[in-house]
Amino acid sequence: MKRGSVRLREFSLPPLFEFQTSGGLRVAVARRTGIPLATVRLCTWAGSATDPPRKRGLADFTAGLLRRGTRRMRAEQIDDAIEFWGGNLGTAASTDYAALQVSGPVEHLPKLLEVVGQLVLEPAFPPREVRAAKARLAAQIANDLDDPAQVAGRAIERALWGDDHPYGHTVDGSIPDVEAFTRGDAVGFHQARFGPRASVLVVVGGVLERSVRAAVEASLGRWKNASVEGPPRLPARRSPALERVALLIHKPRQTQTQVRLGALAFAKGDPESFAAEVLETILGGVFTSRLMQAIRVDRGLSYGASSSFDSYLAGGSLVISTFTKTESTREIIEVALDQVAKLRDGGPTAEELSAAKTYLAGLFPLRLETNDSLAAAISELKLYGLPTDWVTQYRQKIGAVASEQIVEVAQKYLIPERFTYALVGDAPSLLRQLRGLVPTRVRPLSDLR
Amino acid sequence: MFLRSAAASSSTIPKKFFEVHESRLPNGLQIRLLPDDAAPIASLYTFFKVGSRNEQPGITGISHLFEHMMFNGAKKYGPKEFDRVLESRGGRSNAYTSTDLTVYHEDFAAEALEQVLDLESDRMKSLTISQEILDSEREVVKEERRLRVENEIVGLLDEELATLVWKAHPYRWPVIGWMGDIENISKEDCERFFRAYYAPDNATLYVAGDFEVETVQRLVGHYYGDIRPGFARAKVLNSEPEQRGERIAAVRYPAQAPSLMIGYRAPAANHPDALTLDLLQYVLSVGEGSRLKRELVYRQSVAVSVSMDWVWRIDPGVLMFYLELEPGADPERVQRALYRELEKIASRGISELERARALHNLRANQLRELATFGGRAHAYGNYEIFLGSWRDGLSLSRRYQAIGKEQVRTAAEQYFAPERRSVVTLEPLAARSR
Known about the structure:
The structure holds 2 protein chains of 2 kinds. By secondary structure, chain A is α+β, with helices and mostly antiparallel strands.
């Protein structure tokens, strides 16, 4: 059997039709037949990064309330309108933007679009729903604090960016802030952040452009809140005064430590992205990555170890995630950082580079296999203003990444001495282990409420 | 307003999903090929009919630990080679073990298909089990158990609930196994296990994606044809005694809020009531407008979240509810509210609107599952194991439609009887700050 490099079969995206509504909403339609379902996704620059001070979680809270009643429909009527035909609706914020997504039978697309239009244009924020949503959200955060991995996620955001940076908290916010939310907060946030010029709409499915155009115009054409322009202006970096310490969250009775090691990196759209993706694959993106081999395969220290570059409008990060039994926490940190340093100093081998590129290129069509995933990819391109060839020419761009580019990115971001640590586990034992490795600040779980 | 659509209406399953090429090698290996050139990729799913129900006390968790061992080297592709070769050719792999099955799957660039068959057949034919790798992999599995069970509330409750629901059947122990048993599994146990269960006559291959049928048929014969059938496999006994009353347990653990896991003894997948329970599950818990979410979360605000878990199993299974509560909430109040809703369905049944809504959602979710190559290969495998054939899977929608409201009510009355119930409550221990 032949071995060696693979020539990949051609792969193309469905044709994309684009237009604007009379109110200025940018719309992209990808016509894809196959299964008789369609996806509609509306993204608006209203992510958790735009949460006002001391109102952490307001973006997600507001997005969630959009479906809890409009001027013409109660929450239960909205659920029924979408779900009766087998549709599902999601309204949530992420770091940079809020997304409202509905998927359902393609023949009901106009109805689905009509509901989307009502949610965005006429949310009623009924007082009873606001009260109930506050209680639910606060209780959900409390429940999530019982999950060590989620706690670690909250801790590393804070440790990396600092409390005051818009990226320094998780999307769901914090219990004290949520408990102080008022109806006016949500109404005000919606007015200030949701507008057609700060949004994009993507439709994917077996649809015809002119029919979609008519249906979109009917449901969203009158959306004209011209005062809202996106994207928001955000500070690029945390204040340089922030000291580098390990943030150790004490969670009683843990027999395993959740470990996150992170550093700040580049913003969305950076030309380094493609080289960084290859680098991330080699470091901790796949089973044969250096972290997985050193931590799991060679030492049996963990079930999993991964690394990921995440990039946003105003910045980004590289985070390594793993976990191990309490006793081997120091060892796993040292092994992980040793791999980071080795990759920075020695760069990838020719074999690693070729394997990572073939892996990313070969599996790329899988990332766009469903209507939902294609809608997500297109909406990000359009929202961030990235060239369409970031998707259509992805395989070529990955194929063109040279070893020197990887080394350059590695030398910029793989610097163990600059890494921030977040650990969740049994503090007394961990403090003993970390002595001499990094200054450590122990905080109770309640600090992350 | 009517939208002109370029696709078929959602009431039909696309025709291409019925194109399945079935064959069987002389050694017993079953093959199902599902060609589709929608994207230049493919997925291979290998179903072995073995899971934790085939284990015995003392070596619980062996089917899962063994799943890990399958990635650690065989005759042609030695240790560390499987994933190295696969990933470098544009593929990825994973596997899972359940109570009933072990499933290995690869997604890959269409060009890598022969390579994937070579890799996958090599380990079925000639897996190497070394003591050193077993010991290392055992540590990995112990970390997985710490992750999913010992430091995770849902895992703790789930493990407790299974021991309440089952007294005799192997469903009683967790798929990952008890910590002591994971420590105890020997190289010889693994070798016996491999010879019995990892045999062509206990496996079915599903390939979905962009390929030529004849080529793949030839390649499968070439790579798998010389693998010998397995040793005799022990029959799984179902000696589970009848449950004669509600069973209750508590888990005390540091937590912010109480939660509940509640199970009702339910039938096997091939029982006529199983599909009725699918429909009932959709009425109760699928979608924000489903009964339990609407009542318990939105109208009464007694739970933060509610989910229902009902999966097909070879032997009689369980209908499970998991409810997250507010800090300080009274779990008994939530239980009363849940039981009231279940009793309402048992006495008054469901509305025609609810039935239609459940049918539409069952259909749409099946289409979502079949939309990807991996989803399709996986779904067809499950259809064959649990329903008897993939054709039965594709006709599910018609069978669901034949279920009347009275049938749903009767099923609710029978299966939600209090004497079939087991309840595990998480009682939070207040965290002492240091």
